[in-house]
Amino acid sequence: xxxxxxxxxxxxxxxxxxxxxxxxxxxxxxxxxxxxxxxxxxxxxxxxxxxxxxxxxxxxxxxxxxxxxxxxxxxxxxxxxxxxxxxxxxxxxxxxxxxxxxxxxxxxxxxxxxxxxxxxxxxxxxxxxxxxxxxxxxxxxxxxxxxxxxxxxxxxxxxxxxxxxxxxxxxxxxxxxxxxxxxxxxxxxxxxxxxxxxxxxxxxxxxxxxxxxxxxxxxxxxxxxxxxxxxxxxxxxxxxxxxxxxxxxxxxxxxxxxxxxxxxxxxxxxxxxxxxxxxxxxxxxxxxxxxxxxxxxxxxxxxxxxxxxxxxxxxxxxxxxxxxxxxxxxxxxxxxxxxxxxxxxxx
Length: 347
Fold this sequence. Notes:
Blueprint: H1 2-8, H2 14-37, H3 46-66, E1 69-76, E2 80-83, E3 86-90, E4 102-103, E5 106-110, E6 113-117, E7 120-123, E8 129-132, E9 134-137, E10 141-151, E11 161-165, E12 169-172, E13 175-183, E14 195-205, E15 208-212, E16 215-218, E17 229-230, E18 237-244, E19 249-255, E20 268-277, H4 279-305
Antiparallel strand pairs: 1-20, 2-3, 3-5, 4-7, 5-6, 7-8, 9-10, 10-20, 11-19, 12-13, 13-14, 14-15, 14-16, 17-18, 18-19
């Protein structure tokens, strides 16, 4: 019946159906055996439970491995994207938390179901970013939403934005801008608060060089808190509009003092969405397998203790139950040697 149900769900590969049939058959046989031997005590169930766990694990491996699906989606603030029948919409970034993690809230909906997925990012001081996915568990499958590159709102390329890679130089009017490095602040030691990232940029004009550090930051509620850098000549203001720590790039906003700052492009986040059918059977199978192994080990341990050994290591047999008096078997009588007959003398 299970194999037929799997085929009706669309999993029609012949070897997969055969795999599922034999695995579920093994589970059914061992479940029936459990019902027959349950009167023998808990310790005797270990081996059968272990076999059931192996069967469930094999079905879970097939479902989550062979029929796993994934797709990459780019999310933008204010716009919804589709993946496997789910609608995903990015909300403003939240963070940092007390431990330095940023939450990326995503509104997820499918029919009448609605929930907020929160994958997380943790930028380090070396320009690396650690990521943790969000997992939504269902009875028959799990939904994973893994974060990729997050790009904060930035200026349009045709409205005063300049993109630089680490170590790269580009001209802008009379100026030449050279991106030196990122400047990440030290961790706050577990205290929540605003977080900022600066870009150290070298600006040269007519043989004169200045080093500036525009800053892109977020307050505790996730709201942008930037700090612009004005050049000493009073003719240019530089802002850090976006960073990509993975690729080592920045986007700079360049404008004259007093000019209105252009509206930024909406922030975006790339996510990879996974569907893993039958993954819960895998975890359940490993749990039952572990339980069966513990019971089997304990039974062997008890049986070994019940068989004592003498100093020579030869087992003597099972001990008598408590309260039962045993008597030693009578020893056989030792035979008495007969006296030797005297020999006759010859005359």
